[in-house]
Write a structure and sequence with these properties.
By secondary structure, this protein is mainly beta. About 5% of the residues lie in helices and about 55% in strands. It contains one helix and nine strands, in the order αβββββββββ. The strands form two sheets. It has a five-stranded mixed beta sheet, with no helix packed on it. The protein has a four-stranded antiparallel beta sheet with strand order 1-3-7-5, with no helix packed on it. A hairpin with a 6-residue loop joins strand 8 and strand 9.
Length: about 140
Amino acid sequence: MVWDKIKKMLGGEKKQYGTPYIVKANLHPIRIKSKSNDSVILEVYIKNVTNDDQLTSVKLVTTKWLGVDPTTLKKEQTLKLGNLSPGEDKTVEFKIHSNSGTPQGSHKLGLVVCSHFKDYEQSLNKVKKIIELRAA
């Protein structure tokens, strides 16, 4: 109640700065098989923590040993999620594939969640995350 009166006196709601999203990622299963055709699912949870609608897209970039299609020729994938309302969350999934040339060890995946201005051509903010996928 007191906080509402202070907000009225100061002229409205408090503006938020910083990252517009909370981003969490999970791999199912945790490891991918090396030297064989195998796949894992990357589950990405995104939540809009701003006071405004955000036009959102998610981009996944893999290393040269992995891919987002069974032939592993396609190395990146972008999903356009549309507008996320304040407090709204979405979960998206990417399928990541290995092939007979995938070596053992850790492979880095790049994940970029981007908020856009009017259309998907111009970006306002980005949240980047590096995910390590082990090949065994």
